[in-house]
């Protein structure tokens, strides 16, 4: 099973990565996906998470084929 | 109800006029239109800003804008909404965002318009990157207002 992970804006530039496919195990959360995608880095408290383009939480459980995005603080408007 | 992200510069007043002409609400049915237009400044935090890039999350952005418009409609007695937001390369003085609300009476229009822009600024997935004489920098937070 796998999810598509996406990084945006300053986070994308800092990590030097835009998107990738990450394998996961049943029961894994969005926070666990972050850890797997970043070599077990801690999830910064200011980063927002979206699953399938809806805001989600660090403890949201992901499903096969989900799109899991990590977003720095937004600055639109 | 319309919510769109635009890559090209737009004229908010022409958009407003055109959308109002197309409103499904009958003419005479609305008594108030509240409008917010956000425009790119040429300064931020005491530094001159020459240009800006607005990144967004295609798909999620539109869904978010549509969801806040739907929420506004459940919270106030409003008739219609229009939200337009720029993405891509911007120059100072170009409009960034247009939020407009039509209602029978002014209170709902003002309140819903304020709600739309504040929700958009705090949650819609857009990110500004400014070009200054010292190079490029991501804007790390919006001003309090």
Can you describe what's shown?
- Chain A is 19% helix and 30% strand.
- Chain A has 77 residues and is of the alpha+beta class.
- Chain A has a 5-stranded mixed β-sheet with strand order 2-1-5-3-4.
- Chain A is globular, with a radius of gyration of 11 Å.
- The N and C termini of chain A lie far apart (37 Å).
- Chain B has 145 residues and is an alpha+beta fold.
- Chain B has one domain: Aldehyde Oxidoreductase, domain 3.
- Helix content of chain B is 31%, strand content 38%.
- Chain B has helices at residues 12-22, 60-75, 106-123; strands spanning 2-6, 32-39, 43-44, 47-48, 51-56, 78-86, 88-90, 95-103, 126-132, 135-138.
Mean pLDDT of chain A: 97
Shape of chain A: globular
Look at the helices and sheets of chain A and give the structural class. Answer: alpha+beta
Total domains of chain A? 1
Task: Give the overall silhouette of chain B.
Answer: elongated
Main beta sheet strand tally, sense and closure of chain B? 4 strands, mixed
Instruction: Kindly estimate the percentage of residues of chain B that lie in beta strands according to DSSP.
Output: 35-45%
The DSSP helix count of chain B reads 3
Q: Which consecutive residue ranges of chain A, at least 5 long each, have pLDDT under 50?
A: none
Unreliable sequence segments of chain B: none
**Percentage of residues in helical conformation of chain A:** 10-25%
Tell me, rounded to a whole number, the average pLDDT of chain B.
96
CATH level-3 fold name of chain A:
Ubiquitin-like (UB roll)
CATH superfamily of chain A: Beta-grasp domain
Number of domain units of chain B: 1
Number of strands of chain A: 5
Name the quaternary structure. Answer: heterodimer
The CATH class of chain A: Alpha Beta
SSE string of chain B, helix = H, strand = E? EHEEEEHEEEHEE
The helical percent of chain B reads 25-40%
Q: Which features characterize this protein?
A:
heterodimer; A: 77 residues; alpha+beta; Ubiquitin-like (UB roll); 5-stranded mixed β-sheet; 19% helix; 30% strand; B: 145 residues; Aldehyde Oxidoreductase, domain 3; 4-stranded mixed β-sheet; 4-stranded antiparallel β-sheet; 10 strands
